[in-house]
Write a structure and sequence with these properties.
2 domains; four-stranded antiparallel beta sheet; 13 helices; Outer membrane efflux proteins (OEP)
Length: 450
């Protein structure tokens, strides 16, 4: 008998949810660290899917790092609010004066204060740039779009990581349950081998039958080994997502692997199609890129209007009067550079991002249509399996094992049914797994929990 069961790797990526609600989860979630510490001591962490996800949202390093990008973007908005610093210039200072130089003065220059700076010439100028055409406000608008972009990039990362995390968790559950089936089969074969060994010693069976059971035990052990390697690989990926180190084994409660058919049948997914563009972070990012270039265009147009520099100066001993106070202004003349290139760049950016946004929307709609059909197909297949089929299958197999031990059926009949039993158990488990995967894919496509 050849075992046909092969392990199919789980899909990557994960679904997202809205930014502020998930930030609240990341910051406020109260998952008990003592449970985790206790589990580490036992080298086993066994939780349900919900608690694993809480741990993921709390500890994933990529999510934590991405929140700092939002803070960086907000800091740039604060920077855009600031006025330029005034400029202070002190110049034309004579550090000493010769007698010949002093002879040209009608009267000595007095001290500035105390005995400091007697007969010393210097000039002081204070200059302040006045920003015109609302450049500060327009630059703030550009940077505010940057904050929205950072928030949506967080949403997109969260969406992808949740998709990857949940599918990896599903794969681990599937591998655990599938491995458990083979462990039970191996234990059963070991009991049959003990009984057959006694019958072999009494010459009631041939050695060939006994060797066939031994071969079956070896095949089951080989399959368990392959499943264990796949499970270890999946655990490794899950530990990275959970930021867990050390020799901790991850186990997922089995109860929540069976889909909630009632809930899935009541889902009105088609209603979400009407506004799922408002949820998908990649669609919103494309729209924000367009908004960015519109804000940038307003800012670049304002850059064509020169700023004004106001100045106030004091000159001591450098002109007609011993002490002179003066005021002035300076302005660039927009003769050669009227910021034409930057304005054209922003205009082309608006056109480019508008086309890309339409393309992303088209692709999102096509993804939804396909993934909704796949989800319905997976649900229909699972519904086609009778509710008590798996229980009946286990009972019949147990009956076959007892009849085989009582020699009411021969070895070939038993092995044939056992292969059919394992194949059907695999199909049932994979149908449940497919429901989880397709539901996550649909949520990922919509960009919202359903």
């Amino acid at each position: 008998m050849k075992l046909k069961d092969k392990i199919i790797g789980g899909k990557e990526m994960q679904d997202a949810a809205q930014f502020f609600s998930k930030i609240a989860v990341v910051l406020l979630i109260g998952f008990s660290s003592s449970v985790f510490a206790q589990s580490q001591q036992k080298d086993t962490l066994k939780l349900n899917r919900q608690h694993y996800e809480e741990l993921f949202l709390k500890q994933n390093l990529l999510l934590l790092a991405e929140t700092y990008k939002i803070n960086q973007a907000e800091a740039m908005v604060a920077q855009a609010k600031l006025w330029p610093n005034p400029s202070l210039t002190v110049e034309e200072i004579n550090l000493w004066a010769t007698n010949k130089q002093l002879s040209y003065l009608d009267e000595p220059l007095p001290q500035v204060f105390g005995s400091v700076a007697q007969n010393t010439q210097f000039a002081v100028q204070l200059e302040q740039q006045i920003i015109t055409a609302g450049k500060r406000r327009k630059l703030m608008e550009v940077e505010k779009v940057g904050v929205k972009v950072a928030e949506q990039e967080f949403e997109e990362l969260l969406r992808n990581l949740k998709y990857e995390f949940r599918n990896t968790l599903t794969e681990l559950q599937y591998l655990q349950l599938y491995t458990e089936i083979f462990f039970k089969q191996r234990d059963l074969i070991q009991k049959l081998l003990k009984a057959y060994k006694r019958q072999l010693e009494s010459d009631h069976i041939s050695k060939g039958e006994y060797m066939r059971l031994q071969s079956l035990q070896l095949e089951l052990s080989k399959e368990i080994n392959e499943l264990s390697k796949a499970k270890n690989e999946t655990e490794k990926e899950l530990k990275v997502l959970l930021s867990i180190t050390g020799p901790v084994s991850l186990l997922v409660h089995e109860d929540d692997f069976t889909p909630d058919l009632q809930r899935l049948q009541d889902l009105d997914v088609l209603n979400l199609q009407q506004d799922f563009f408002t949820y998908r972070p990649d669609v919103k990012l494309a729209e924000l890129e367009n908004e960015h270039f519109k804000s940038l265009l307003n800012y670049e147009k304002s850059q064509a209007i020169p700023d004004i520099n106001l100045n106030a100066s004091y000159d001591r001993g450098g002109g007609v009067w011993p002490s002179f106070f003066g005021f002035g202004l300076s302005i660039d003349l927009p003769v050669f550079n009227r910021n034409q290139g930057a304005i054209a760049y922003a205009q082309m950016g608006i056109e480019n991002t508008s086309i890309l946004s339409s393309d992303i929307r088209l692709r999102a709609q096509a993804e939804f249509d396909q993934n909704y059909k796949d989800f319905r197909a997976a649900l229909a297949f699972y519904e086609s399996i009778e509710a008590h089929f798996e229980t009946d299958l286990d009972e019949i197999f147990e009956s076959y094992s007892k009849n085989f031990l009582s020699r009411n059926i021969n070895l070939l009949q038993y092995l044939d049914f056992q292969e059919a039993y394992l194949e059907n158990k695999r199909i049932i488990l994979e149908s449940k797994k497919e429901i989880h995967l397709q539901l996550e894919t649909l949520q990922y496509t919509i960009g919202k929990e359903i």
